[in-house]
Amino acid sequence: FYLKTGEKLPLLKKLKVENGKLKVNYEIDKSKCKTFNQKIQWIKLYGVTDIMRQCTDKVAVRDYVASQVGIEYLKSVLQICNTFDEIEFNKLPNSFVIKCNHGSKWHFIIKNKQEYLSQEKLFEVTKRYITGWLEQEYYICNGFELQYRGIKPQIIIEKLLRDNINYNPKEIQIYCFNGIPEYIVKIHNEQEYSFWNKDLNPIESIFKYRLINIKETIDDNVKTAVKLSEKLSEKFKFVRVDWLIYNKKIYFNELTFTPY
């Protein structure tokens, strides 16, 4: 369904699809929000602000980060384009990331440019997907996250920051409530995580699903990420500030307002 500008729903309903049919799982309103998940669902419809939309845009958020903590924590942008055909591949390095600025996980990782350009089918698939993404509103097709609504679609190409090109970099995720970093998560890989509270003491997993909890001593990168996240989150009731680690330094990844 679609909401008109300024229109509100009397109750937020969690929707799910079963056997191809849309079903209502449960109803909540603001006064009855108890769990973190319920509050996240409420934020999707009623809590989105203009500054959240700016900070959801992968291009526009760079200005916010630069103004709050400085440009030294931003990843290098190689090109910004409005269409796939505008990309100047001859000016790009051997590895890079092609992203759409107005969605989540709408990206392609190019590890070897020459190999990529030589595979005509792969190139055409990439072009078809990115062109299709540029024509879509992300919030409609994935989770009804209204902070994505109205973002001008663009392509942003960034340097690929990986110490090992075949593996994702380590990440730091800071869960911030009213400008206070309450939970710190370091992602070592898909199965191994470390967890700390706001006092930087190790804690058990904050997630229900099973992970290997590595009891790691907190390092300077985590401490810096916590300090910077406090500054980046001060305008929001909740935001998860995401960082990645490359060449022993942290880089801003994104602000996530409605995780999972």
Tell me what you see in this structure.
The chain contains seven helices and twelve strands. The chain has helices at 36-46, 50-56, 61-69, 113-118, 120-134, 138-141, 220-232, and strands at 12-18, 21-28, 77-81, 96-100, 107-110, 155-159, 171-177, 180-187, 192-197, 212-213, 238-246, 249-256. The protein is globular, with a radius of gyration of 19 Å. 22% of the residues are buried.
Short description:
This protein has 260 residues and is an alpha+beta fold. It is built from 7 helices and 12 strands. The protein has a 6-stranded mixed β-sheet with strand order 10-9-8-7-11-12, with helices on one face.
Per DSSP, what share of the residues sits in E-state strands of 2 or more residues? 25-35%
Major β-sheet, in short? 6 strands, mixed
| CA distance, first residue to last residue | 21 Å
Tally of helical segments: 7
Oligomer: single chain
**Uncertain spans:** 1-12, 20-24
Order of strands side by side in the largest beta sheet? 10-9-8-7-11-12
Mean pLDDT equals 90
Shape, per Cα inertia axes: globular
- Class inferred from helices and paired strands: alpha+beta
Helix and strand sequence: EEHHHEEEHHHEEEEEHEE
Instruction: Indicate the percent of residues in helices.
Output: 25-40%
What's the alpha carbon Rg, rounded to whole Å?
19 Å
How many distinct beta strands?
A: 12
Keywords:
disordered N terminus; 12 strands; alpha+beta; globular
